[in-house]
Design a protein that fits this description.
The protein has about 350 residues and is mainly beta. Helix content is about 10%, strand content about 35%. The chain has 2 domains: about 250 residues, Sandwich (Jelly Rolls); about 80 residues, Acetamidase/Formamidase-like domains (Endonuclease I-creI, Roll). The longest helix has 20 residues.
Length: about 350
Amino acid sequence: MSDILTITSEHVSGLLTKDAAPAAFCRDGDTVIFETRDCYDDAIVSEERPLGDKADPIENPATGPLYVEGAEPGDVLKVEILDIRLRGWGVMRSSPVCGVFHEDFTERTARIFPIRGEADEDRKPGDAAGSGGGIRDDSGCTAASGNDDTKRAGASENVASAQYIQFDDRLALPLDPMIGVIGTAPVGYGITTDTPHRHGGNMDCHKIVKGSTLYLPVNTPGGLLSMGDLHALMGDGEVFICGLEIAGRVTVRVSVVKGDAAAMLPTPFLSCRGRVMTIQSAETLDAAGDMAAKAMKNFVKKAAGKDNFEAGMLMSLLSDMAVCQVVDPLKTVRVEFPLAVLETYGYRLP
């Protein structure tokens, strides 16, 4: 791992902008590690101090930006999520001003959850899941692997996932680590890292996991890719205002997609676990859902070679619409479609 480019968590910002100086440069196809802070800027280290220990923490700090050589406006950045390694503990905090349940609280309260167990690929034959405190690399982060959606509900004992948190004395929850903030520099003015938009940003889509591939628009030379705000576990909607917030290390392979293949993708666009999806954000869920459905329909129409009628029928039969988050300045909705259907018609992802 020593010969792989690493962007450390010293290089963080609360703003994604084309005016940012690159933290690092890479070539098309290179593998890069992003070391990230949690969404609280690593400020909350004790449940007794829910406001944290920093006077002026960065909200949702994103590590970067990365300049990808050869990436030009109009291209698409292909970001393959190769690995996510987590810090040994995660934190959640209530809010009296944000989130669906904010009226339930008059002050902030924090809870810290130790990460237990170890990743499947790090267990030796015969080892039991949850038998140790986690395999850590030299940064103190535990290795984590994505789990099937069927494992996300949790189990009281004999947890199927290798890594988990003990929520209480009855419930253990298997982890499914994801990236909350990931984006390129937006068009025009900079956009804060608490806001999702066409460049990506704070989409909080729990499908952006190890093994998935995210396609993002290139709006400025080099793309200027940044990421952060990892969650060890989060449900659709992020209704409490946060997921299980955590710092870590994300390993990605970054490539440049050009020409018609790039123009066809309704970015932000994600391939995950046999499904492709477009992720769209707007002031209301209705608007975001409308944008996502129309963007995916147009993509299916082109990928499958169908007219509006047939593409619309396929969408109504096979697509799924889901809410990613309802707590950011813009709301985020994704629309998913089975990749195998598009491959039946000869389409292949770039």
